[in-house]
Structures are given as C-alpha cells and as structure tokens.
C-alpha cells in the first residue's frame, strides 16, 4: 500500500500537526506514505526535518491549471493506492487531477474544520461525489458534513484525532524539573492553556477569569503556551495588552511555541480549554492523557472529549464568570483534581490513543483498497 496524504495549509496548528503525526504512524507500520503540502510552509519544513517524502503545490481559490497539471503528473506517475487529504480545500486540486488522469484511486477526506457555507451546488456535488469516504473528527463535524455537503450518512465515518498516550504519560515526565525551568514555586497552582494565539481560542475569557481569581488566590500562575500563526499577530498583541490592563503581569507566563508540550503540560495543575468553537481539541486530549483535570467550554467538539463532573467541569461558552467559578472548584480541591486527572488519563487511553485510531483508519483503508 502506497499512500499520499495532503494538507495544503500555510498555518501551523492542530490540523497540520496531526497530519504529520498520522503520516509518521503509517510509516512506522511499514506503509509507504508521502505528503503533498504547500511549499515552504511550516508543515513542509517539519516534514522535511523528519525525512518524510514531500511534494509541493499551491492551492488558492478554485482551479489553478498549472498546479493542477503538476499534481496530475504526480498522481499518474506514482499510482498511489489511496489519497487522504486533511483539508477540504485540497479537493479543488485533487479531484480535477484525478478526473484529468482518469484515475480511480480511492480518495478520503478528514473533515477537520466545520463550515457554514452550503456546498450543494453543481461544482461541490462534482467534488464530493468523487470522495470514497469522509472522516468526521467529532459529532459536530459529522452533523456539519450532513448539513452543508451532498454527502450521505453512509459515506461519513467517525474517526477522532488521536494523541500518543505513551509520549503524553505523566509517569514518564519529571514534573518538578518542568516547573523549575518555568520558575514555578512548589505551592503555586498552575492553570494552563495550550493554543495558538488565534481569535476564538478563548484567551480573553481565561484572563478575565484570572482577574478575579488572583484577588483571592495569590499562589496562582497562568501558563499560556503557544504563539500566533500567520496573520494572527494582532490578536496576540491584544492578549498581551489584556495582561497589562488586568494587572496580571506577575501571574502570567508566556512560553511561546514549545515542541515539548508534554513537559509544559506536566507543570500544570489545571488545564483550561475555553475555546469558543473547536471542531475537536487535540490539546485537550493531550492534557487528559497527562492526567490533568480541566475546565472546558460546553461547545462543539469538546463534548466528544470531556465528561462533565468526571474528567472536567464544563462552563457556558464565553462566560468568563462561570469559567472562574469552575476553576475555583478545582483550585480549592486537590482531591477533585486528582480524581478528575485519573479519569481523564483513562478516557484518553481508551478512546483517543493514536495507535488505536491508526489501526481503525488502516482497517477503513483495507475495505476500499484491493491489493
């Protein structure tokens, strides 16, 4: 089996990171997998560092004849067993290339991000009818596919994104070392958030909650892990200004982008996930795998991951006051933090382990690939 993965994104977030991880998983199983990506993008750079075979194409707008012919030549010469794209926008390049070469290669789409655009016009029907199957990473995304595309129920399969629970294992991480590096005192309670500095991630809600919490609890630290992606610098500047405006400079730690996210998460006591509309939430699953209790917005893909009053406390989306209330419940109870953390780790291993989900997707492939 020879597979081509596609992710023609210029950003660097959960979708792009998961694409790299998925390719690595398939390669580790002895399945030859190559990657089509945007030239000189972050995903292109990371793939090259890992010695993943890469090809590049630029996808902007709808039809791009020069890029289309380049991809068509690639597909014709390589004769892949199947193609799997992580971005629906890539279909505008892949489907015409397959049609142009008259290839019957199975084509899969993982729908990572929801859309509010109706896609039932002639051109979209032409694109989506060429799909072998679409994978939905959460219930909200499955419903979105049914509501906005020509796809029928029998063409949509549920396939969550996953994490390496062996890497994100608290038993393997030196928590004290991580906290020392970040200058966190032994008795500090660390509320952490791991996300791009992007509108909708909810940084402003967490900082609003921290404003009142720091009046009551002087041993709180707010750990913000991440950086802005392309075009998001304005939002990052706004977040940093809020820290100043709320007099939180002595409480907030900005780590920037970190590859060793398991180490940074280990330094946390509570994980905050205030995202306004997350299709899934890979950072939340990573935190759960690290046995961290969490407080999460009660919206979208979060509902497939967190279990209220078991792994997490859920709060009303965008309600900073309620976020503060739920965080305080965990701040005041070490026993609840411990129990929620154990429950979270067990749930992550059972449902979101990357090995388990890789087995699942390979079995799906085998249903459609005859070799």
Tell me the strand percentage band: 15-25%
Strand order of the largest sheet: 3-2-1-4-5-6-7
Uncertain runs are none
Helix content: 40-55%
What is the compact description of this entry?
This protein has 371 residues and is α/β, with parallel strands linked by helices. It has helices at 14-28, 42-49, 65-78, 91-101, 122-128, 139-148, 175-181, 203-216, 233-245, 261-266, 282-289, 302-305, 320-332, 334-351, 354-368; strands spanning 2-7, 32-37, 54-56, 82-85, 107-111, 133-136, 156-158, 189-194, 220-225, 252-256, 270-273, 294-297, 312-315. The chain has 15 helices and 13 strands.
Written account of the structure:
With 371 residues, the protein is an alpha/beta fold. It is built from 15 helices and 13 strands. A seven-stranded parallel sheet has the order 3-2-1-4-5-6-7, with helices on both faces. Helix 12 links the parallel strand 12 and strand 13. Helix 11 crosses helix 14. The protein is elongated. The mean pLDDT is 94.
